[in-house]
Each structure stands twice: as structure tokens, then as C-alpha cells.
Design goal:
With 596 residues, the protein is an alpha/beta fold. Helices cover 62% and strands 10% of the residues. It is built from 21 helices and 10 strands. A hairpin with a 2-residue loop joins strand 4 and strand 5. It starts with 8 loop residues before the first helix and ends with a helix.
């Protein structure tokens, strides 16, 4: 908790251009028809808006031509207003629905991607930052697709159409207006680059604060037990303040850009109107022409001002798109082969390590396994023992292919794991991890996680075998009791028994137990041990344990130290041999137990 996460701006680089939004096209492509309909509605409303000043000119110039003609003009204006309202409503519905649909697809695609990434990926990126990308960044994209792009296109049409109609109304005045355009474009381009960088930095600080909050909340009991609340609050406050300062700088840059653009446009319009008023006095143009030109000038000025603001939103969305694109394009260090081999069925469960060497990505200087050769026969129960950090859990992780060894190979029934599809061979493995995972669901759903199609009777049978039935039946709603986030209402031993029941229900030919009984009381451990012994008769079982009492009856005990196998044999043979296992046994057993 002393560590304070930093934003990843420097590592990933700043957004280069709004063109990054083109990466959204694969998600928009399936909804081309909806997009086309929205564009048609948008074009209709922009066209109607551009027609209105012409109607106003006719009313002004024809004011003295009789009430009948004026009535026709006003009735036509009502009809135009109705068409404008219907077109605007249709545009809003289509664009908003399109935005929600696309963002839902993006969120699903990102989650589908990250949920399949190997543990090495999460050693480099905090889960809180990933969640920030899935939520905060997709919200920015929703704002763009569901609003900003539509508004930008409409204002571009209004800007282009207004300029053309201004030329037709008065080429002289329109030429003067066009002289203002370069003065408006320069600050948009110059300040836009700065705004883009600031937007990306702000998003990174938000992601960093989300990562810290996620880490603290997931370890809330430890934080409170060590009275670390104040330090955690300070760390989060520091990151939040940095996010605010970054946002403040971004907002200031955007405000300056908006103010400059609006002033230049407004000053130009006033100057043009002054010249236009003089032309009306000399008879060079009618009052209606001037009114029409004024309305188009306001439209063009408003559209240009809106585009300058929308540009900032597009910059932020471009950064968000890049960040999501990084997740979608991330390459996993562990990948299935292009043409995976078929694992022979039924799976017998014979496992072999052939001269395997492995280093964790974050600890490249320290070997977790060094030249390990180990063969586990089908149906054999093998216990892995040794001091902490000796490499025992690494064996479990390599069997599940969470990582690949740097050298050597690992086989299941003679097939190299690297040649198989991970989902294929993992179906044949059941795991009870050292830190049992309990989901925010009912007890029944947590156990059924091992085999989703299992019946209620099978779930309860697995719970009985894992010595979990009694405490589950005593819960307020029995097996249907919601266990809370991470099983907060359960003790450590109860969590382990649910994890064991989950593995029992999976009924896989290979069973991996990583300190599976470390949190159990003596009575529950004896019951679970009996269940494990019954299971071991029909499957390959690998047990990682520090408590040697749980492995005395294993067919074979393999002793690890500093990533190497230093001894193997039965409990009695290893005790008689002396060495590391005998020393560990003397620390845990009385002399009478050693002889037993």
C-alpha cells in the first residue's frame, strides 16, 4: 500500500489525432443502415434550418404586400417547423440508440479480450485501470457517437450550407466573412494539440485513482486491521487532486480556445453587419437580404463556435479510443496454436515436466523452476512440499498453462500443452487455489461454477463430500443464500470448503490442490482429507502443502527447494533419508508421529 500508482501517459504516448476515432468503424459497420438513416434525418433538419432564413427574407420584403400572402408564409413556416421537429426527434432517437448499441459492443469486446488474458498481463496492468477503461472511456465514446459526432456533422452542414447561401445573398459581405476563417482556424489547431495531450493525461490520472480505489476496497479488512485508512485516504486524495489539477488545466485550455474563437467570429460578424447596414442605406441590398444574411451569419458563427467546442470532445474520445484499442490489440504472452492438436479422450491424467526452466516476468533474475523433470502417472497422488518460494505453486500454474516455460516442455497424456487449446485441456483439470475465490452469488451458484450444468442434488452431494453441507444448510436461505462480495460473510475455512466442493463437482481427471486445507479446523480437515482420498483413487492428484500431515498418505512426495527437486519418495522413506523433508517433519510432528 506504500506504492502509489502512476498514470501510464508516458508509456502509452499521447493521442495523435482525432483520426484515431476511425478505429470505431468495425463496431459501427454492422449498423450502417441505422447510421445512414440518422445521417438522412440529420441532413433533412440541417436543410430545413437553412431554408428558414429565406422564408424570413420573403416575409420582411413582402410585409406590405397584403395579409393573404403573409398568412401563406406563416403557414409554410409552421409546416417547416413541424418537419424540423420530426426530423430532429428521429435523428436523436437513431443516433442515441446507435451510440448505446456500439458502446455495449465495445464493452463486451474489451471484456471478452481481457478475461482471456493470462496472469502475466495483469502483472503489468492494474484491474482498476482496466475497469476505468471499460467504464469511463466507453462513456466518453458514447458521448461522441450518441451526441458529438451528430452535432458536429450537423454544424458542418450548417457551416458549409450557410457559407454558400451567404455567397448567394451577398458575395461582397460573404467575402469579408471568409477573411475571418483563417483567424478562427489557427487557434483551433494550435490549442487543439495541447488540449489533446491534456485530455489523455487527465484520463490516465482518473484510471490511476480507480486502480488504487479498487486495490484498497478489495483489501478493506487488511487496510482497517492495520489502521491504514488515513494513509489510503491520503493516497487516493493525492491522485484525485492530480486528476483535478490536470482537468483544470484542460478546461482552462479549452475555455481560452473557445473564448478566442467566439470573439473573432463575433467581431467579424459585427464588422460585416456594419458594412451591410451601409449597403441597405445606399440601396445596394434590401432589408430582407440583410436580415437573411444576418441569420446565415449567426448560423455560421454558431456552427463554427460549436465545432470548436466539439473538437475538444472529439480529442478526449480519440484518447479513449486509443486506450480501448490498446486492450483490444494487446498480445497475450500465452496463446493457443493456430491449429491446436486434439487431446485424446478419455483423458487419463498423466503429467510430465521435461527439464522445465521458468522465470516469472516480473522477476527475471530469479528462477522459479530450474531444470525440473517430474513425471506423474495417471491416477497417482503426488504431494509437492518444501519451503515458501521453492516452486511448488509454480508447478500448478504451469500445468494450467497460466505461463509457458522458457525451456523444456509440459505434457498431458503425452501431448505438449503448448500444442493444445487451453480451454480443451483445462476442462480436464479441477483446481482448489491457495486463496479460494468466492463470487458475489449464492452458495449454490458458487459451487455450480465447477460444472454449470450440474443438478441441485449433485451440488449438494459435492458440498457434503467437502464437509460444507452443514454450515451451508444453516445459512438464512440455505444454499440459496447470497454470500456477498468475495464471500465476505464466510470464514476462511468455509471459503476453502466451498472451493473444494466446486472442484469435486467438476469431476475432472486431474485434481490440483494448492494448500487446499490450510484454513480448515482439525475435524473439517479430516473429513475433507477423506473425501480427497476417495477422489484420488480415480484421478491424478497433485497436492501442494506446507502441513505435512495432509500428504503422509500420498503415493509419492516430491521435495522442492529453490526451484529444484531435491528429493522424492514416500513419507517414511524421506524421513529415514534425512535432509530437508526430515527437518520439516521434525518441526511439525512429534517423534511418535514420525514413526507412524
Amino acid at each position: 500500500m506504500a506504492r502509489r500508482p502512476e498514470p501510464m501517459t508516458e508509456d502509452r504516448g499521447a493521442s495523435k489525432r482525432v483520426g484515431s476515432l476511425a478505429a470505431l468503424w468495425p463496431f459501427l459497420r454492422p449498423y450502417r443502415l441505422t447510421a445512414a438513416m440518422a445521417l438522412a434525418a440529420l441532413t433533412l433538419t440541417a436543410t430545413i434550418s437553412l431554408i428558414l432564413p429565406i422564408a424570413v427574407r420573403r416575409v420582411v420584403d413582402g410585409f406590405s404586400q397584403g395579409s393573404a400572402l403573409l398568412d401563406q408564409y406563416f403557414l409554410a413556416a409552421i409546416g417547416i417547423a413541424l418537419a424540423l421537429a420530426l426530423g430532429t426527434g428521429a435523428r436523436y432517437y437513431l443516433v442515441t440508440r446507435l451510440g448505446e448499441r456500439v458502446v455495449a459492443d465495445i464493452r463486451r469486446a474489451v471484456f471478452d479480450r481481457v478475461v482471456a488474458m493470462s496472469p502475466a498481463f495483469y502483472e503489468r496492468l492494474m484491474t482498476g485501470e482496466i475497469l476505468s477503461r471499460i467504464t469511463t472511456d466507453t462513456t466518453l465514446i458514447l458521448s461522441v457517437i450518441g451526441s458529438s459526432v451528430s452535432v458536429a456533422l450537423r454544424n458542418m452542414l450548417m457551416l458549409a450550407g450557410g457559407l454558400v447561401l451567404m455567397l448567394l445573398t451577398s458575395a461582397k459581405l460573404a467575402g469579408l466573412v471568409l477573411l475571418i476563417v483563417p483567424a478562427v482556424v489557427v487557434p483551433i489547431v494550435v490549442l487543439g494539440r495541447r488540449l489533446r495531450i491534456l485530455s489523455r493525461e487527465n484520463q490516465d490520472w482518473i484510471a490511476a485513482s480507480s486502480g488504487l480505489a479498487s486495490e484498497v476496497l478489495q483489501a478493506i479488512q487488511t487496510v482497517q486491521a492495520f489502521t491504514h485508512e488515513a494513509a489510503s485516504r491520503q493516497s487516493f486524495a493525492d491522485l484525485t487532486e492530480k486528476s483535478f489539477v490536470s482537468a483544470k488545466v484542460r478546461i482552462k485550455a479549452r475555455a481560452v480556445m473557445t473564448a478566442i474563437v467566439i470573439f473573432l467570429i463575433s467581431a467579424g460578424v459585427v464588422g460585416v453587419l456594419w458594412i451591410g447596414a451601409r449597403d441597405v442605406r445606399t440601396g445596394a441590398m434590401t432589408v430582407g437580404d440583410l436580415v437573411q444574411f444576418v441569420i446565415y451569419s449567426v448560423m455560421v458563427a454558431g456552427s463554427a463556435g460549436a465545432l470548436s467546442e466539439i473538437w475538444g470532445e472529439l480529442q478526449r474520445a480519440a484518447g479513449a479510443t486509443e486506450r480501448l484499442g490498446e486492450l483490444l490489440a494487446a498480445r497475450d504472452a500465452i496463446a493457443d496454436p493456430a491449429a491446436p492438436a486434439a487431446l485424446a479422450r478419455p483423458v487419463r491424467g498423466a503429467i510430465a515436466f521435461e527439464n522445465v526452466t521458468f522465470h516469472y516476468p516480473t522477476r527475471p533474475a530469479q528462477s522459479a523452476l530450474a531444470g525440473v523433470t517430474l513425471r506423474v502417472r495417471a491416477g497417482e497422488t503426488v504431494a509437492l512440499v518444501g519451503p515458501s518460494g521453492a516452486g511448488k505453486t509454480t508447478v500448478i500454474q504451469l500445468i494450467l498453462r497460466f505461463y509457458d516455460p522458457e525451456s523444456g516442455r509440459i505434457t498431458l497424456d503425452g501431448a505438449d500443452l503448448a500444442s493444445l487449446a487451453r480451454a480443451d485441456f483445462r476442462r480436464s483439470v479441477a483446481l482448489v487455489p491457495q486463496d479460494p475465490v468466492i463470487f458475489a452469488a449464492s452458495a449454490r451458484e458458487n459451487i455450480r461454477f465447477g460444472r454449470p450444468e450440474a443438478s441441485d442434488a449433485e451440488v449438494e452431494a459435492a458440498a457434503r463430500a467437502a464437509a460444507a453441507h452443514e454450515f451451508l444448510a444453516a445459512l438464512p436461505k440455505g444454499y440459496d443464500t447470497h454470500l456477498g462480495e468475495r464471500g465476505i460473510m464466510l470464514s476462511g475455512g468455509q471459503k476453502q470448503r466451498i472451493a473444494i466442493a466446486r472442484a469435486i463437482l467438476r469431476d475432472a481427471p486431474v485434481l490440483l490442490l494448492d494448500e487446499a486445507t490450510s484454513a480448515l479446523d482439525a475435524e473439517s480437515e479430516q473429513a475433507v482429507q477423506a473425501a480427497v482420498e476417495r477422489l484420488a483413487h480415480t484421478r491424478t492428484t497433485i497436492i501442494v502443502a506446507h502441513r505435512l500431515a495432509t500428504v503422509k498418505k500420498a503415493d509419492r512426495i516430491v521435495v522442492f527447494d529453490e526451484g529444484r527437486i531435491v528429493a522424492e519418495g514416500t513419507h517414511d522413506a524421506l524421513v529415514a533419508e534425512g535432509g530437508l523433508y526430515a527437518r520439516l517433519a521434525r518441526l511439525q510432528f512429534a517423534d511418535s508421529d514420525l514413526a507412524a
